[in-house]
């Protein structure tokens, strides 16, 4: 009675072959374009397997920065960071609280001058610019260290170091956090 059922093994899932390697049978599909991919072509992402083509396409949409965005963003980030560190010399305690806000301001200014174009390299380069912009006055603060007033310049140095760290981290998270969230 069951014989008939057994003789006709209807295969519900037709065999899949990798679209890059037509001779390779596979059970995976790219979860974006839905094409079959073999284990060699599959890239495991947080949302599942994807083919390399889709991964590349994805990176391209994240990578919209143009060449002239880099010098522009670097100058803006460096100058505001420097101005912030200059003000920090007058208003230490206020600035230490304000440093994270300065970081956010720099991030918004950078996004504005590059018309919200973005790339991973742009984030990295501008983060370096923020650090570099805060350094000249930190180096100046170092000088009295060798000129006979070590304690006060040590305090200045610590505060300037804290300013650099706070501005840089808040800048970086603001810039990249928005990238990831969008
Ligand atoms: Zn795909
Ligand atoms: Zn393949």
UniProtKB/TrEMBL annotation:
<protein>
    <submittedName>
        <fullName>Predicted permease</fullName>
    </submittedName>
</protein>
<feature type="transmembrane region" description="Helical">
    <location>
        <begin position="153"/>
        <end position="173"/>
    </location>
</feature>
<feature type="transmembrane region" description="Helical">
    <location>
        <begin position="90"/>
        <end position="113"/>
    </location>
</feature>
<keyword id="KW-0812">Transmembrane</keyword>
<keyword id="KW-0472">Membrane</keyword>
<keyword id="KW-1133">Transmembrane helix</keyword>
<feature type="transmembrane region" description="Helical">
    <location>
        <begin position="67"/>
        <end position="84"/>
    </location>
</feature>
<feature type="transmembrane region" description="Helical">
    <location>
        <begin position="125"/>
        <end position="147"/>
    </location>
</feature>
